[in-house]
Structure prediction request, 220 residues.
Amino acid sequence: MKAAPLFAVYGASGCGRSVMPLARSQLQRQGVLPTRLVFVDDRPEADALNGQRVQRYEEFLETSASTRHAVLAIADSAVRERLADRCRASGVQPWTLMANNAMVMDEVTLGEGAILSPFITLGSNVRIGRHFHANLYSYVEHDCVIGDFVTFAPGVKCNGNVVVEDHAYVGTGAVIKQGTPGQPLVIGRGAVIGMGAVVTRHVPAGTTVAGNPARPLARG
Ligand code: UDP
Prediction:
């Protein structure tokens, strides 16, 4: 008999534990047995966590399966990119998770491996790259363009016509002002937006900003 597909939440820490229930309910809706879902972690602290087996990556690859799928549940975007390459090299397919109450409006393009947590809204005509993490209660309004490996902490309010470049991190409760058609507000590659920041203008690549209005942090 052919083995069934095998699914993993890669990362068995805070992010992974928040993502596992989404994974479980998504598979349940598809009629997949709960035993075909595991945590994968390179430094496992136990054999099981919150009722789910924890495997090392090598073990995950050795477990009999027709296909393997992993969602990268690790907040650090550089780690996500490294693990995405690793998974691709070993034939593990990117897996997208969407909470059943996530709201996705019209003409949204969502890249592979995204995590849309509960109470997320993606507005119309939004384009999103690979391995986007949208945590609880965040929204991305109309006409935004989000790059690859972007991370939104909970409660991010990203208003319309904003461009968020690859590897940017937006902290809890940050508010990003709306851009205009043809003149989007741009959050540069690898920028970090502090918790609660109110972003009213462009943020250059690699810059950390905080406060209201958000300003670059002085280097210590
Ligand atoms: N991890 C891993 N492989 C890596 C890097 C990290 O399996 O190459 C795991 C690490 O062992 C830990 C989790 O990913 O269990 C990251 O947890 P952390 O608490 O640092 O971050 P979070 O869960 O908030 O993303």
The CA atoms of residues 191 and 206 lie 4 Å apart. The longest helix spans residues 14-29. The pocket of uridine-5'-diphosphate is lined by residues 11-16, 41-43, 74-75, 79, 83 (CB under 6 Å). The chain has two domains: 6-95, 96-211.
